[in-house]
Amino acid sequence: MGTIKVAFYDAKPYDQKSFNKVNERYGFDIHYFPTHLNEESVALAAGFDTVCVFVNDTVNAKVIDKLKENGTKLIALRSAGYNNIDLHHTYGKMHVVRVPAYSPHAVAEHAVALMLSLNRKTHKAYFRTRDNNFAINGLLGFDMHEKTAGIIGTGKIGKVAAQILRGFGMNVLAFDVYPDKQFASENQVEYTDLDDLYKRSDIISLHCPLTPENVYMINDDSIRKMKDNVMIINTGRGKLINTQDLIKGLKSKKIGSAGLDVYEEESEYFFEDFSGEAISDDVLARLLTFPNVLITSHQAFFTKEALESIAVTTLNNIRRYHQEHQLPNEICYQCNEGKCTRKESGRCF
Ligand code: NAI
Predict the structure, then answer these.
(1) Fold exhibited by the domain 5-102+303-336
(2) Where do the structural domains in the chain lie, given as residue ranges?
(3) pTM, full prediction
(4) In DSSP terms, which residues pair with 234 in a beta bridge?
(5) Is 179 a pocket residue for ligand 1 (Cβ < 6 Å)?
(6) Which CATH homologous superfamily contains domain 104-295?
(7) Is 265 one of the annotated active-site residues of the chain?
(8) More reliable by pLDDT, 139 or 338
(9) 229-246 pLDDT per residue, tens
(10) How far apart, in whole angstroms, are the C-alpha atoms of residue 202 and residue 147?
(11) Do the Cβ atoms of 53 and 37 come closer than 8 Å?
């Protein structure tokens, strides 16, 4: 077999560094394209066996048809989430693999960093003291000890977040469509329904994937059920929150603070430098005016350990497919519906 050619979209300098290092062991021919994959840029992938994409690349039906026409056989996601891919449309046309876990600690620790900063207002203190302003008025926080955190989604990341917050002495409530009762009893975590979690939590942290069922789960209706002054943290996916409703909750002071690593319209701005330009997204611009909103640019995953692990798993996924016809980290729409036959065959179709 000839050299495996990989079209790598949305390539950043840190991606190239980590992938080049790991690729010394694989010897793939990787072409790094700084642009996102979309209907305009898909032509760049002509002649590549494999396309490597990230969270803000667009893999819709038109892009998939064009990739197939171009000869692409494998889409290798270098992320865990895959809501940006039309899996239904890829089925039978090309395989899709992902990195199911790289560092749940990276994301959970970042979620807790957002909580701590918003609570103790270290993001504001940083600017004050640099301006020789040593007043502490307005920086009042609360003890997290004995307060209640609500974790929505107790998969790999949610579990680590729950354990860290238990270490702070918080009471931890959880909601998951598939609760892990053993984890709950071993870590003194209490599973409950969403309404009860909203009612009792001082801090709510989202760690579930985005699915058609939970789009805008945080909306006027759910916010109304929450405690006054609640803190909402989202390191999951932007569309879990209806941003207009979040802004309403912040304006009415129902919501005390919000830490957002993801935003529903992030693809235009996140990961890029717009420091010399005006922001044309009025919703994002409004969010940035709140002193009690802390936005980070989808950086929760961004640790040395996670980058290395992403490169290792992605290149291994590509090698296993091309050399062994095996796809241990394949995803398809039937996987999501629990009907996939992958266990028997080592690949989804
Ligand atoms: P996982 O697959 O280990 O866990 C997800 C959990 O959510 C599962 O237990 C599942 O049963 C549960 N779940 C599914 N639908 C749900 C719903 N409607 N309500 C409540 N629970 C539900 O995934 P992992 O690795 O913990 O990642 C979670 C999400 O975090 C990813 O899907 C991705 O969207 C996001 N993520 C964000 C990153 C960042 O840098 N901000 C990096 C990595 C992941």
Answers:
(1) Rossmann fold (3.40.50)
(2) 5-102+303-336, 104-295
(3) 0.92
(4) 206, 260
(5) no
(6) NAD(P)-binding Rossmann-like Domain (3.40.50.720)
(7) no
(8) 139
(9) 999 999 999 999 999 999
(10) 6
(11) yes
